[in-house]
Specification:
Chain lengths: 523, 523
């Protein structure tokens, strides 16, 4: 694979000086145009040590406008980073729309090292899958993703290291670790071949660049980057002048949900027994029991460094807030955070739609409660047409992948759909209108959403069908009776945490009574 | 001080139920009005353990709209937090404008604990100064700052703990640590008295609230909070309908800079020897020497966990970018970050103007380079009138305090003003116009700024006069000759780091030659 990158191509100083001005000008012009688009440019640099990644990045920084370009390198994860899913820090480092990000090694670093040092094949393959999937998400969201592998042959690398080591100004660049890697050159190249083979996709291609001569490498990368950006700009400008592609209509036509969309088939929600209720006295007992249980489980999870993420979605007025408050009352407030999902800020709008949820992932051992969530993409954004059909259809896979990363990291993830009947919602709206301190809760939007009840019901059905997994299940909560709903939520949260950390230590652990078994059946 | 909070005031369930609806409604209405203003509401809760801070916060969360309110508690600092100046995490936790933040203990927690456990008086006083100053900054920026001290007598605390410990649902709330604190009750109350005495200012008052009865405490705090917010809203609405206060004009009149402002007195910039140059050969040697030195110092600082912050300000086209690049070339890119200061994002605009710089403070041992900085407040914002006179005048003290926190944390801080003569700037503008890949660097704004040269010169003079301290000095760089300027910057950075971490270990350390001494004289 790398034979073509060991040809000894060079650029003389004179050639370099002759070519830089026009390249630089073209790159700047392209950069200026990118600024006014809605896509980011993600440029990745990989390659063996000493192959000149730094030189190329340095040149690009010199040629282009640093205000709209960020360079990111990644050290060993800090404690705060290590306590979150591995990709958390990469999400934080992504350039916003209209900007260019130069990322060194990034998500390739660990898989390459692990594999070169004998890590198991299966783990390596899994890591590559994860990378391909992650990059696809970025590309699907419109990002330009382009990757440069800087290559040096084994002898070339040796020569480079020796030359650097002799120069007092550059000796620091060569460490014992570099020589260790050099001795494992064959292993690195083997892993690199596999990496490039697996992750070089149409949308996110690798370019192998000969690294012997930094001038040559910089010019070559600069030229390829320019070409890539210009190609995208042309597409972008074309797309913004032509009509929407007819493909979308066809897609909608072929939709499997056509029948559902016309309200003719029953949804998963239709099967719920909405008459379930709980007496006030029973409620009080169960509330105290499960709050105590939840509190002890929180402590236990904290000690075991197991985090919990709870997602609340549901109809307007279904009692999300009330259920969250009953949980909060039992939790030590230092270890819990409620994240209300409002309209994105401009920093958030300038990123992939999952970015604003990634940023809220907590350190180990905490509870994070999302009051509405990333499911907005396949609910309100789908129904209101804020997301294109292509976007929300893609979102199921993106969400599953995101949640998989979360659960793979050992986090407990439970998702609640708080369900109401139409009649009950109407009654609650009227009640809100009449209660002065609840009036703020009822907006014009709530009434509008209500009109689209059928569309939402289809969206919920699809969502549950496509994103309820064993490790990240949807719990459908029959919420016509608030008391019943709150206990079902509390009990489900407790069970999920308990399944992960074991029953609470203290003597007051409630026995798993018959009531619990009954409710489980009702889910 | 606390006698008035041991009167046993209570609210019965009936009273509570009767009063909550109207209070709740009024709080919601006030909250809704706050949303449309440009100030945040910072609510602090202090007090002994078990005095019911949690109950009150819980009630407020229930009464108000959680979408525009955040509750923050603070655990022991994480590694990432501990590596930054102590207030970094508090800055991150401040509510944006239009929102309400409920902060538990926050910056009071550590001073109170330290003092109660016998920490030295002087340290305690220093901490209180710091708090008063920090809160003043927030208030000056328009924040409503209101603080509630929840109080319980020693017996009341004991009773509360015993009652909680007996209840299986609440036993977790009482820890061994709580009893330790209880045994030191007198020490805590002594420290608390001093805290309240010192930090209860007109703008940021403490209210002492009797904590025996959670219902009473919640109603009382709710009422005081409402009153505070409403008073501010009234002021705010008045201010937005009346003319600007004449006090400003008087302030300008009385300005000490009146003479300077008319360009009649020489500024600190006039004293610089702008003819200083460096030959290309000497430059190359010095560049290599200092780059090597800087690199070794970076490594040494990294090992000693000493961070460095470099600030670059200067005339347009003065060569900030070039100087930064020459430094970057010598630095290991994993340990350095360049932060370009552009227009604030909306998340940044919704905070105190220093917030967006606080967020970029690095972990220990790193180098952070600010390309323009918080000095924008007293430069462009002053000259262009983006900040009011009151705001920019206040900024000197705010900046000094900020930089003091930075240097107290052991961070090396150096600030550069890159100076040009008017003639040289004009020549560079013309050169930029004629060089295709430099043209982007020259904007309409640069020409406009040039027209206000005299105003900027006064602003720079004031800035240097008021913010150049021994531990955070301004270095004025004679930048008519780019080569001379780059070496002066490099050399100054090296000297500053070296003064903190000692000379570099390696054998290649350059001798402190005569040239260096000469340049030092030229500063």
């Amino acid at each position: 694979m790398f034979e073509t990158a060991e040809l000894g191509r060079k650029a003389t100083k004179r050639e370099y000086k002759a070519r830089v001005p026009s390249l630089r000008q073209a790159l700047l012009a392209a950069q200026e145009r990118v600024r006014h688009t809605d896509f980011p440019v993600v440029v990745l640099f990989g390659g063996v040590d000493g192959a000149g990644k730094g030189d190329v990045v340095h040149a690009l920084n010199e040629w282009m406008d640093p205000r709209w370009m960020v360079t990111r390198t990644f050290e060993r994860p800090s404690q705060d980073e290590a306590e979150r899913p591995a990709y958390w820090r990469f999400w934080q480092a992504l350039p916003p729309k209209g900007q260019i990000g130069l990322l060194l090694s990034a998500w390739y670093s660990r898989p390459l090292l692990r594999r070169a040092y004998g890590g198991p094949e299966a783990e390596f393959e899994e890591a590559l899958e994860e990378i391909a999937d992650f990059e696809k998400q970025l590309a699907d969201d419109g990002a330009v993703v382009v990757k440069f592998w800087l290559h040096l042959g084994k002898q070339g690398q040796e020569k480079r290291f020796k030359r650097l080591a002799k120069d007092p100004l550059h000796a620091w660049r060569v460490t014992e670790r570099d020589w260790d890697h050099w001795r494992k050159y064959e292993d690195f190249v083997g892993a690199a071949e596999r990496i490039i083979g697996r992750t070089s996709t149409g949308d996110c291609p690798w370019h192998i660049v000969e690294g012997v001569c930094p001038r040559y490498a910089s010019l070559h990368v600069g030229g390829l980057l320019l070409e890539t950006i210009e190609r995208r700009l042309a597409e972008h400008e074309e797309a913004h002048t032509s009509l929407p592609a007819p493909a979308h209509a066809a897609l909608a036509e072929a939709s499997l949900d056509a029948e559902l969309a016309h309200g003719r088939a029953p949804t998963v929600l239709a099967k719920l027994d909405m008459t379930q209720r709980l007496e006030k006295n029973a409620y009080r007992t169960l509330l105290a029991t499960h709050q105590g249980r939840l509190n002890r489980l929180q402590l236990q999870a904290r000690n075991q460094k197991v985090s919990t993420i709870l997602v609340f979605e549901g109809w307007d007025a279904a009692g999300k807030g009330g259920a969250i408050r009953r949980m909060n009352a039992a939790l030590d407030s230092r270890g819990v955070r409620v994240v209300p999902t409002a309209a994105p800020s401009d920093e958030e709008s300038a990123q992939h739609y999952l970015w604003r949820f990634w940023r809220h992932l907590s350190r180990a051992g905490r509870v994070t409660i999302f009051d509405r969530s990333w499911y907005g993409r396949v609910l309100v954004e789908r129904v209101e047409g804020f997301a294109s059909e292509k976007e929300w259809r893609r979102a199921y896979a993106e969400i599953n992948r995101f949640e998989q990363q979360v659960t793979n990291h050992g986090i407990v993830l439970v998702k609640f759909w708080m369900h109401l009947t139409r009649e009950e919602q109407l009654a609650r709206f009227h009640e809100r209108e009449q209660t002065p301190w609840k009036r703020w809760k009822l907006t014009e939007e709530d009434w509008r959403n209500r009109e689209r009840w059928d569309d939402y019901e289809v969206a919920v059905h699809d969502m549950v069908e496509r994103t309820s997994t064993r490790r990240a299940p949807w719990i459908l909560v029959e919420a016509n009776d608030k008391l019943f709903a709150r206990i079902k939520v509390l009990e489900s949260v407790c069970s999920a945490i308990e399944a992960r950390v074991g029953p609470p230590d203290e003597p007051h652990a409630p026995s798993k009574d018959a009531r619990k078994e009954k409710k489980r059946g009702a889910r």
